[in-house]
UniProtKB/TrEMBL annotation:
GO terms for biological process: G protein-coupled receptor signaling pathway. InterPro entries: G-protein_gamma, G-protein_gamma-like_dom, GGL_sf. GO terms for molecular function: G-protein beta-subunit binding. The lineage of its organism: Eukaryota, Metazoa, Chordata, Craniata, Vertebrata. Gene3D superfamilies: Transducin (heterotrimeric G protein), gamma chain (4.10.260.10). This is Guanine nucleotide-binding protein subunit gamma. GO terms for cellular component: heterotrimeric G-protein complex. It comes from the Eukaryota. Residues 3-85 form the G protein gamma domain. It is found in: Cell membrane.
């Protein structure tokens, strides 16, 4: 490796380290506590924990899904072709 390419590589490393140094870090214990609190607060609305009424269709669950990303949209369109939505 030549001297100039070594300098370029070191500058990239320094730039990356500066970027990472500016990231606000959260302790794993705090993140776990926040996640646990979120789960406890939202458990009553989670159909995986509470079950679903038989009058609720898969389409209505997907309509209320958050966030509504491309994957859920594709899944929803797939269900529309096989069920009445």
């Amino acid at each position: 490796m030549s001297g100039s390419s070594n300098i370029v590589a070191m500058k990239k490393i320094v730039q990356q380290l500066r970027l990472e140094a500016g990231i606000n870090r959260v302790k794993v214990s705090q993140a776990a506590a926040d996640l646990q609190q979120f789960c406890l607060q939202n458990a009553q609305q989670d159909p995986l924990l509470t079950g679903m009424s038989t009058d609720i269709t898969a389409c209505s669950v997907l309509d209320n899904a958050v966030p509504r990303g491309p994957g859920l949209r594709d899944l929803h369109h797939g269900l529309e072709s096989t069920q009445e939505c």
